[in-house]
Amino acid sequence: MAKIILFNPPSRDKVYLSTNVRAAAPSYPNLTLATLAGHLIKKHDLRIIDLELAVDYESTLFDQVSSFNPEVIGASASTPDYLIVRDIMRKIKRKYPHIRTVVGGVHTTALPQEAAGEACFDTVVIGEGDTVIPEMLEAPSLKDVHGIIYKDRFSGKTIATPKRKLLPDLDALPFPAWHYFQLNKYKNSRLSSRRNPVGLIETSRGCAFECSFCNKLTFGSNYRAKTPRRVVDEMEYMLKCGFKEIHIIDDSFTQDVRRAKEICQEIIRRKLKFVWSSLSGVRADKVDLDFFKLAKKSGCWQVAFGIESGDQDILDRVNKKITISQIESAVKLAKRAGINTFGFFILGLPGDTEETMRRTIKFAQQLPLDIAKFDICIPYPGTAYYNELKKEDRIKSYDWSKYICHQIDQPLFAPSNITWDILKRYYKKAFREFYLRPGYILRRFKRSLIAGDLIYDTYYFMKSKW
Length: 466
What we know:
Elements: E1 3-8, H1 12-17, H2 31-38, E2 45-50, H3 57-68, E3 72-76, H4 82-95, E4 100-104, H5 106-110, H6 112-116, E5 123-125, H7 132-138, E6 148-151, E7 158-160, E8 198-201, E9 204-205, E10 224-225, H8 228-241, E11 245-248, H9 257-269, E12 275-282, H10 289-297, E13 300-308, H11 312-317, H12 324-336, E14 340-347, H13 354-366, E15 371-376, H14 384-391, H15 420-435, H16 438-451, H17 454-463
Parallel strand pairs: 1-2, 1-3, 3-4, 4-5, 8-11, 11-12, 12-13, 13-14, 14-15
Antiparallel strand pairs: 5-6, 6-7, 9-10
Helix pairs in contact: 8-9, 9-10, 13-15
């Protein structure tokens, strides 16, 4: 039995709280770490430390390391928080060189050699790494563990093992180990939730579509799904753990809309009473009115759409494979079923001009959306867009901590048809022109009165940067 610490880096402040979307900053216990823990709890002694909740994260972490004396410390890194994970691991290595450090996540999967070049990382995980840590602890040699780059302890050489295969059966995954988290510490705003604490669930992995701005390296483009019964079993387990609301974070929850309907029907059949939303952005071409009605009946209060642009040529260029008319129809169907609508839009997409961005803002205004979120198209490593910009020498910064889709102060890349200053102006313009419309304010005021959200909405309005 090994002693293991998994930590979640303190990135919420930089990624959300200091940006234009701070009023809706999410607060969830980390699903990735809970999922990893599910594979470890039966054979190993484990602690999960969420440094987002710490007042002094260094003291919190090192107090735990000192008292627990782990053999392994692991973390998962996205691009915006990769550097802080690296810096924390450097401090760990300086003070505790004997501890084996493991890092995985979307950033290390996209740029494994960069991470492998860091002395603070003993093992770098590439791809879907659910069972890597238990395999490392049980294998006769690390060379037998696929999907990693590790440093040989004797020679110091960096060794890469063969590519890891994707998990074929998601139903075989253990339930995430939520008992390692203090759920009452997590609170989402009323903009994104109805009841706290809110828990995340993945019902599928992989996305069959290849949008140029999206990284598919971890879970791949092969769509794999949990069965409806397994999904609702997990939801029921989450409710018993103490969650009051569930958010589905699949790349495409309605990829198989028949399966999505069966999940709703199973919730209804079991008479489970909870609220849920699909907050990652469902595809407009993969829904119908029957789905929305079943979703509403089963407790869905809000659904998000990955709309991206209001210009068809831009949608085609980024390989979105949906049409403007499909988007209009899907959003209207959701509203017809009585579900709140949330639209995700991206500015600075490949080919965007001032005119196409104006169309996007106007399109957002025309749709019956309760909330719209506008982001800058960040060329994250592992995406086709990143590869295109790098090849053309148009990436202006490799400071990964700046790779935040709400960050507009530092030019990260050179857009093709506009300047960074123009992109910044349209980013601010989009929020103002969507939310400061008299018609929207009146509609939101009426909705807030009915829902009892007037105080909340007033607070969020005052907190936003216009």
